[in-house]
C-alpha cells in the first residue's frame, strides 16, 4: 500500500523540482524528505528518482506515479467534502487567503454572512500576495483563497488546484492632478511607484511598461495601495492601481483608465468544490462582491 503522505512529497517534488524546496514547504529536513521518498520507492517496487548532475529527477515511473498522486489527493479531497456534506452543521476552521484590497473591500461582508449563517465555522483570514496562495493551498495552510492576475500577464494556479472567476476590474494609471500625463506611454520618463519585487503587482508594472516601449524608473516600492496613492498625491511618482483600490482616491490624484484588466478568482484544492464550507464561502463572497460593486 502506498503511503499518501509520501505520495504528496513525490507530487510536490514533481512541481518544485528540488528536495530542498519540498523540505522547506513541509518544514522537514532534506534528509527526512529523501528518506520518505526512498520508503515510497520500496513500497512501489520500482525506482522513482535518479540523479542528474547535482539534482534528483523523477524516473518515467516516478513521473507516472506523481501524476496518479494528484488524482489520489484530489479523490481524498472529494471524500472529505462528501463526509462534511453529510453532516448536520458546518463547524471547524476555514482558512481563507486573500490579497490586501480584497481583504479590505470584498471579505468583510462575506465574513459577516458566514458568521451569521454558520456560527460554528471558525473563520481564519490570512493576507498574502496572490503569487504565494497556490503553494499555501497545496500545503493545506489555506482551504480557499482569492487570487488575481492581469490579462496582460496571465497566470494559473497549477496542478492540484481549481479556480472559478469572481471579478474583473479596470486598471488605472494614477498620476498627480494637474500633471500632463495622457496615458502610460507618456510616463516613460516619470518616476514610478511599484510593488515589491516578487509580487504580481510588481511584475505587471514591468510588463505594461515594457509593452509601452520603456523600462520604468522605479523610485518607491509599496504594496499598500493607500500608501501608493498618498505617494502619487505627494508628487512622488505614478503608479498602476486597480479599480478596487481606486474607489476613493485622495485629493490631488487623477486616475487614467488603461486597457488592462485585473482578474480575481476563487481558488481551492482539486476535489474540494463540493465541500460545504467552500460552497458557503463561494456564495458569500460572490454576494458581497455584487453588493460592493452596486454601491
From TrEMBL:
<protein>
    <submittedName>
        <fullName>DNA-binding transcriptional LysR family regulator</fullName>
    </submittedName>
</protein>
<dbReference type="GO" id="GO:0003700">
    <property type="term" value="F:DNA-binding transcription factor activity"/>
</dbReference>
<dbReference type="Pfam" id="PF00126">
    <property type="entry name" value="HTH_1"/>
</dbReference>
<dbReference type="GO" id="GO:0003677">
    <property type="term" value="F:DNA binding"/>
</dbReference>
<dbReference type="InterPro" id="IPR036388">
    <property type="entry name" value="WH-like_DNA-bd_sf"/>
</dbReference>
<keyword id="KW-0805">Transcription regulation</keyword>
<dbReference type="GO" id="GO:0032993">
    <property type="term" value="C:protein-DNA complex"/>
</dbReference>
<keyword id="KW-0804">Transcription</keyword>
<comment type="similarity">
    <text>Belongs to the LysR transcriptional regulatory family.</text>
</comment>
<dbReference type="InterPro" id="IPR036390">
    <property type="entry name" value="WH_DNA-bd_sf"/>
</dbReference>
<dbReference type="Pfam" id="PF03466">
    <property type="entry name" value="LysR_substrate"/>
</dbReference>
<dbReference type="InterPro" id="IPR000847">
    <property type="entry name" value="LysR_HTH_N"/>
</dbReference>
<keyword id="KW-0238">DNA-binding</keyword>
<dbReference type="InterPro" id="IPR005119">
    <property type="entry name" value="LysR_subst-bd"/>
</dbReference>
<feature type="domain" description="HTH lysR-type">
    <location>
        <begin position="2"/>
        <end position="59"/>
    </location>
</feature>
Amino acid at each position: 500500500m502506498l503511503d499518501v503522505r509520501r505520495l504528496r512529497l513525490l507530487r510536490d517534488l514533481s512541481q518544485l523540482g528540488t528536495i530542498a524546496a519540498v523540505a522547506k514547504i513541509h518544514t522537514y529536513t532534506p534528509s527526512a524528505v529523501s528518506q520518505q521518498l526512498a520508503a515510497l520507492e520500496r513500497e512501489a517496487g520500482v525506482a522513482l528518482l535518479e540523479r542528474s548532475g547535482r539534482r534528483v529527477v523523477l524516473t518515467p515511473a516516478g513521473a507516472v506515479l506523481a501524476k496518479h498522486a494528484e488524482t489520489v489527493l484530489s479523490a481524498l479531497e472529494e471524500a472529505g467534502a462528501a463526509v462534511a456534506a453529510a453532516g448536520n452543521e458546518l463547524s471547524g476552521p476555514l482558512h481563507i487567503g486573500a490579497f490586501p484590497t480584497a481583504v479590505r473591500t470584498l471579505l468583510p461582508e462575506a465574513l459577516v454572512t458566514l458568521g451569521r449563517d454558520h456560527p460554528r465555522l471558525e473563520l481564519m483570514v490570512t493576507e498574502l500576495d496572490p503569487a504565494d496562495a497556490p503553494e499555501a493551498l497545496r500545503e493545506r495552510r489555506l482551504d480557499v483563497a482569492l487570487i488575481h492576475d492581469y490579462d496582460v500577464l496571465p497566470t494559473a494556479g497549477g496542478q492540484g488546484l481549481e479556480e472559478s472567476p469572481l471579478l474583473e476590474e479596470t486598471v488605472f494609471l494614477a498620476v498627480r492632478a494637474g500633471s500632463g500625463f495622457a496615458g502610460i506611454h507618456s510616463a516613460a520618463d516619470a518616476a514610478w511607484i511599484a510593488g515589491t519585487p516578487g509580487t504580481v503587482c510588481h511584475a505587471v508594472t514591468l510588463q505594461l511598461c515594457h509593452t509601452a516601449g520603456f523600462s520604468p524608473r522605479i523610485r518607491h516600492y509599496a504594496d499598500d495601495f493607500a500608501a501608493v496613492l498618498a505617494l502619487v498625491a505627494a508628487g512622488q511618482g505614478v503608479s498602476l492601481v486597480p479599480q478596487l483600490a481606486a474607489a476613493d482616491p485622495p485629493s490631488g490624484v487623477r486616475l487614467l483608465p488603461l486597457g488592462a484588466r485585473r482578474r480575481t478568482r476563487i481558488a481551492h484544492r482539486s476535489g474540494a468544490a463540493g465541500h460545504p464550507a467552500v460552497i458557503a464561502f463561494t456564495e458569500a463572497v460572490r454576494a458581497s462582491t455584487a453588493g460592493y460593486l452596486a454601491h
